[in-house]
Amino acid sequence: MKIVKHIDTVKHLPRSANPIIETLSLEWVAFEDLWVTPDQVATFDIGHLNEILENYHPALLRSSSVVLIDGHRVLWDGQHTATANWIMGMDKVPCLVTTTDTLDFKNIPSIEKFDSIQIAKLMMDLIEQNNISSIADLQNYIKTYDNYQNR
Q: Is the pLDDT at 139 greater than 70, yes or no?
C-alpha cells in the first residue's frame, strides 16, 4: 500500500485561527442523552437509516455534531448515523460537541446532503420568500455560476 502524509499534500493552503474551535470537543455521548428538534423528528428518514445499516462498518463511521444548549446535548447533524451506531450496539456514540446559546448557526450556508422532504421545504421557502408564482418567475430567479475555475 502506497501512502503519503496528508499534511504534505495540503500544507501550502492558507490557514487561520478560529476561536470557535476552542469550544469544540470530541465526546462519547450516551445515546439516551441526545435531544433533537421537532423538525428533525418530522424529517427522520427510516430509508436513510437502513442504507447506513446495510453498509455499516466501523471504518466508515463519522462523528455526529452536537451543540450543548442549556444543559441539553442537541444532535443537529448526524442523527441517522448516531441512531445506526446505537442500533449496532453503541450505548455511547462519537460526537463533536460545541457550546452555543441558540441554533441560529444552522442558518449558515454549508454543504450537506438533503433528503427529499428537506429539499421540498427549501423549495417552498424559496418560492414564498421571493413571491415566485410561475416556472418563468423561478427561471428568472435562478442564476447558474460555473465555479469550477475557482476550485
A: yes
Per residue in 9-53, pLDDT (tens digit) is 999 999 998 888 888 999 999 999 999 989 889 889 998 899 899
Taken in order 120, 122, 128, 130, the sign of the CA dihedral is negative
Quote the crossing angle between the two packed helices 46-54 and 79-87, to the nearest 10°: 50
My answer on whether 34 and 93 are in the same domain is yes
Quick one: how many helices (H) and strands (E) in the chain?
A: 6, 5
- Rounded to two decimals, the pTM is 0.67
Cross-strand pairs, 30: 92
Q: Do 90 and 131 sit in the same domain of this protein? A: no
Euclidean distance between CA atoms 35 and 67, whole angstroms: 10
- Counting every residue written for the chain, the total comes to 151
| Residue 94: C-alpha distances to residues 33, 55, 83, 148 (Å) | 12, 18, 11, 34
Same domain, 37 and 68: yes
